[in-house]
Backbone:
């Protein structure tokens, strides 16, 4: 061989050596000396190592699409461990569209989803296995609508902006993309939008718990997709509420651990919005903030427990980044909502410290809330943020260790904010009651029951005079709304409107809640003396809020039976067991 040999012959390749130039052309020095025939070896082209996405190998070359002018362009990779951004997924590769329609046909979509989830015995999930493509598209479209009603919900691109035909095609592409890249989140999104089909909803709920336990508990996996799936599952948990399987608080703590394992507080610990942060994935930030929203809105306001994330500066930085990089109006409110939730957490911590040290709270909750309202509250504020503000204001007054019961002035302020909260919900679109998240749902039902209790308190304070109380008006309005939802879901069956307004399990609970609140409110007119024990705590909050579980609750009946006219009216002491904590003492059961 003449010159330097760049490829090895067969003999040199076996020795793992390079060819050296020989005296004759086409023969290397080793073969020439050994008397061997020098057989040229064509080197095999090396390929770059494949990347792993969700435990699967993904191709390094981006898919190629052809635009309307006939030119081919390469599409960028989807975000690993995450749902696609709206800006990246407005148009999906034609290759994925063909795959979603040809390989994942109408009848086999549910089976394909189970396979992607790694479910071995797919016959154990008949409702999920029998999920057809058209039904899955309907449920996914419903989730896309519902995600607009919950702060920081994981967003998917809406395909209804350019006509019905395009919307259907985009949903096909979106389903195919999610099925391959993040099947666990796809399962959660379909589950969230399936409230109109109770049989499928129950089985999909069990399937998600099964997948979550297998991946997180058994296999110890941690990924952004699993975190987003769990938070989405929690955000509409009330749609699948069953007292026997209630695990909201446990799931929230699991989400807290996943946030820490993924290093999200450390990732957003630096203040400012630099060029690198502007390229951040908005759904990753939403997952971080949604976890905080559920911690404060559910853990503090719902369970009366401390906020456990303890990374407010990282949360503030993440909220500012989201407000800059996202075009959604609700994301622009991220800093305002984070500050409001932080006030909730601070108020709870201050009360806990004051109860332990027997000293008054160091900060004034009402004044801080007034400053917040001056800064952030305006006519364009979203309905969810308004509900959170009104509920938080009443919460800051009722949950105070300064007195056993609220004063008359505090009662009037609380009633005003509770009325504003209920009116705000009733003023939204008809489907808002079905679309709202678990935090706002908890605000709603807690407000209804607290209005009834405040009615007892106000009646006792005025010497037992009977007067109309606003809770009766709102009960009637919510019953009218419930009837409108029923009529809308039964009009023109088979259309999308049926799924949009249909949530029989959720609305069934609402019916029973309204009955229980009505019965509680009617006790205002009872011709008997209202004792402080009746006002502060009658049975438990579990029996109060869940008095609709069965008629004639044995525990509640036993509590009432042992209360006789000769029983002294024991006033609760100033030890943290005030009006609010009495009401919320057993809220863990809800």
Residues:
């Amino acid at each position: 061989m003449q010159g330097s040999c760049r490829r090895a012959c067969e003999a040199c390749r076996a020795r793992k050596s390079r060819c050296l130039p020989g005296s004759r052309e086409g023969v290397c020095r080793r073969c020439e000396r050994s008397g061997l025939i020098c057989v040229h070896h064509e080197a095999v082209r090396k390929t770059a190592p494949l990347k792993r996405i969700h435990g699967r190998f993904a191709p390094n070359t981006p898919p190629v699409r052809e635009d309307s002018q006939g030119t081919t362009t390469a599409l960028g990779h989807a975000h690993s461990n995450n749902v696609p951004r709206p800006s990246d997924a407005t148009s999906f590769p034609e290759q994925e569209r063909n795959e979603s329609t040809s390989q994942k046909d109408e009848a086999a979509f549910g089976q394909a989803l189970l396979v992607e989830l790694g479910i071995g015995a797919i016959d154990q999930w008949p409702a999920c296995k029998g999920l057809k493509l058209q039904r899955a598209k309907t449920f996914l479209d419903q989730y896309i609508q519902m995600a607009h009603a919950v702060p920081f919900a994981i967003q998917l691109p809406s395909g209804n902006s350019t006509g019905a035909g395009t919307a259907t095609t985009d949903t096909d592409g979106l389903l195919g993309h999610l099925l391959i890249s993040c099947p666990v989140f796809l399962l959660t999104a379909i589950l969230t939008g399936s409230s109109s089909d109770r049989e499928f909803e129950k089985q999909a709920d069990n399937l998600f718990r099964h997948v979550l336990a297998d991946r997180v508990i058994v296999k110890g996996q941690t990924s952004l997709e699993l975190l987003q799936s769990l938070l989405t599952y929690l955000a509409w948990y009330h749609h699948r509420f069953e007292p026997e399987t209630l695990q909201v608080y446990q799931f929230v703590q699991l989400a807290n651990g996943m946030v820490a394992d993924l290093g999200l507080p450390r990732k957003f610990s630096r203040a400012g919005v630099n060029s690198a942060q502007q390229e951040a994935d908005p759904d990753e930030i939403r997952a971080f903030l949604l976890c905080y929203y559920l911690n404060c809105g559910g853990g503090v306001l719902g369970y009366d427990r401390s906020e456990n994330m303890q990374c407010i500066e990282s949360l503030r930085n993440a909220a500012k980044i989201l407000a800059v990089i996202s075009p959604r109006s609700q994301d622009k409110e991220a800093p305002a909502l984070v500050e409001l939730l932080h006030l909730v957490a601070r108020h709870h911590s201050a009360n806990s410290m004051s109860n332990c040290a027997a000293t008054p709270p160091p900060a004034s909750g009402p004044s801080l809330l007034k400053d917040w309202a001056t800064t952030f509250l305006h006519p364009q504020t979203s309905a969810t943020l308004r509900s959170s503000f009104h509920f938080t204001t009443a919460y800051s007054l009722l949950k105070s260790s300064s007195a056993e019961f609220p004063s008359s002035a505090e009662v009037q302020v609380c009633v005003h904010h509770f009325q504003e909260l209920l009116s705000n919900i009733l003023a939204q679109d008809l489907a808002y009651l079905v679309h709202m998240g678990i935090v706002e749902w908890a605000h709603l039902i807690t407000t209804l029951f607290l209005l009834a209790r405040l009615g007892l308190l106000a009646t006792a304070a005025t010497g037992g005079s009977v007067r109309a109380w606003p809770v009766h008006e709102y009960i009637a309005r919510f019953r009218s709304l419930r009837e409108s939802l029923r009529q809308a879901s039964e009009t023109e069956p088979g259309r999308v409107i049926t799924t949009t307004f249909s949530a029989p399990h959720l609305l069934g609970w609402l019916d029973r809640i309204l009955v229980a609140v009505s019965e509680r409110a009617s006790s205002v007119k009872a011709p008997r003396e209202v004792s402080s024990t009746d006002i502060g705590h009658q049975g438990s909050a579990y029996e109060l809020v869940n008095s609709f579980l069965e008629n004639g609750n044995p525990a509640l009946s036993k509590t009432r039976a042992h209360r006789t006219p000769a029983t002294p009216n024991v006033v609760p002491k100033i030890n943290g067991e005030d009006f609010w904590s009495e009401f919320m003492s057993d809220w863990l059961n809800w």
Q: What stands out?
A: Residues 92-223 form one domain.
